[in-house]
């Protein structure tokens, strides 16, 4: 509740009529102050006129006035600078450490405000701000999309920066883990990232001339070769088990614990085993994807060609270790639409992170240009916002609404979302 009250105070969403202290002195807020998320009063450097006199200082907000003493503020000199105590329930007077009484005000809000807020954070509607989104002007939508797309891109870039720190500035290693995570396509992202981290590129490059050994390393570390007797009639599987047993002992490999591979409701082409085989194909001959991405210089056709590989050997016509052989066209490792997903989630963040780290703004511009050229992603989230009236005409916009959904809607951070803010702002004055 205090978070909501702080939000109301910060954005001036109170009812200005009849604002007064609990002893009847008229209040006019000139400046609500700066929000403080650290220790000390909630707002610094506020300017408030009380009964015709201008006060400059800090503001503290509590749901109940009695929380002032309960939190020990009456003995804390850090709170002596408070010029106004804002509350919802006035159940006690408040004092500074020297015994001086502090002006106190019950903040008045429109009854519609709390109703709208409850509907946002507690409601069962999948998108309670749908009506407000439909009313956004083209300029408001464009600004919101740009802000959210950059926020999502920055978060992905930060993940890459963390990988660079982990791998001592090695961009190929960071690219390798980023790419591996992407081919999990949401369902198996974490599992693929942990798998990649368990097999450093330096180790894989020692065996990059043998696809069988690379596959043995990946499938073994993935926990898919732990039962040699399981597919006794599968010669390929038995060969991988022997190779992995040898390599595991040679390099003292430890499998990632608790890897869970999900394939429920997946098309066979997207099974984890197929994606692992695909990752092995990209490592075969040496993994130099980052260098190739930079050489492509933002050309979408060249970038797509980097990921258009075919599976060979066993995986050219199999989906699992247990399955029967399927049509030869199963050799295509990945579809055009899936390649575009890789461009969005691997290439774009790498370009952005690289451009930021090297002060090469042309790379940052290339990252944005790719998102603007690619078609929007087609998924449950984009469908939800399209139905609400959002214009989603490229991947920049689809990334934006995914950011809104994942980082604001799902954790119910409606107070910090533009749609939620607009809905509450309107309600505050109804």
Automatic annotation (TrEMBL):
InterPro entries reported for this sequence: DUF2851 (IPR021272)
Pfam families in the record: DUF2851
Domain of life according to the entry: Bacteria
Protein name in UniProt: DUF2851 family protein
Organism: Candidatus Limisoma faecipullorum
């Amino acid at each position: 509740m205090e978070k909501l009250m702080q939000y109301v105070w910060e954005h001036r969403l109170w009812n200005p009529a009849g604002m007064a202290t609990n002893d009847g002195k008229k209040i006019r807020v000139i400046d609500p102050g700066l929000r403080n998320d650290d220790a000390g009063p909630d707002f610094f450097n506020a300017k408030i006129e009380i009964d015709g006199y201008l006060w400059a200082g800090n503001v503290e907000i509590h749901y109940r006035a009695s929380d002032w003493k309960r939190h020990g503020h009456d003995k804390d000199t850090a709170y002596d600078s408070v010029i106004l105590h804002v509350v919802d329930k006035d159940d006690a007077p408040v004092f500074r450490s020297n015994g001086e009484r502090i002006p106190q005000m019950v903040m008045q809000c429109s009854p519609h405000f709390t109703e709208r807020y409850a509907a946002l954070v507690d409601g069962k509607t999948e998108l309670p701000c749908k009506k407000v989104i439909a009313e956004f002007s083209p300029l408001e939508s464009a600004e919101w999309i740009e802000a959210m797309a950059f926020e999502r891109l920055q978060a992905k870039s930060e993940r890459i920066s963390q990988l660079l720190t982990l791998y001592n500035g090695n961009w190929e290693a960071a690219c390798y883990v980023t790419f591996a995570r992407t081919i999990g396509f949401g369902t198996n992202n974490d599992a693929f990232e942990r798998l990649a981290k368990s097999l450093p590129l330096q180790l894989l490059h020692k065996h990059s001339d043998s696809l069988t050994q690379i596959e043995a390393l990946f499938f073994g570390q993935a926990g898919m070769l732990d039962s040699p007797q399981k597919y006794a009639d599968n010669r390929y599987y038995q060969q991988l088990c022997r190779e992995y047993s040898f390599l595991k002992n040679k390099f003292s490999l430890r499998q990632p614990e608790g890897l869970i591979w999900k394939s429920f409701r997946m098309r066979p082409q997207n099974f984890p085993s197929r994606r692992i085989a695909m990752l092995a194909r990209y490592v075969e001959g040496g993994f130099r994807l980052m260098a190739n991405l930079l050489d492509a210089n933002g050309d979408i056709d060249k970038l797509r060609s980097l990921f258009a590989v075919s599976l060979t050997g066993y995986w050219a016509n199999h989906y699992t270790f247990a399955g029967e052989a399927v049509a030869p066209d199963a050799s295509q490792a990945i579809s055009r639409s899936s390649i575009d997903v890789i461009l969005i989630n691997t290439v774009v963040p790498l370009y952005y992170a690289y451009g930021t780290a090297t002060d090469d703004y042309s790379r940052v511009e290339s990252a944005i240009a790719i998102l603007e050229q690619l078609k929007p992603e087609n998924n449950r989230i984009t469908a939800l916002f399209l139905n609400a009236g959002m214009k989603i005409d490229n991947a920049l916009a689809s990334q934006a609404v995914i950011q809104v959904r994942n980082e604001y809607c799902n954790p119910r951070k409606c107070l910090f979302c533009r749609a939620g803010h607009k809905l509450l702002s309107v309600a505050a004055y109804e």
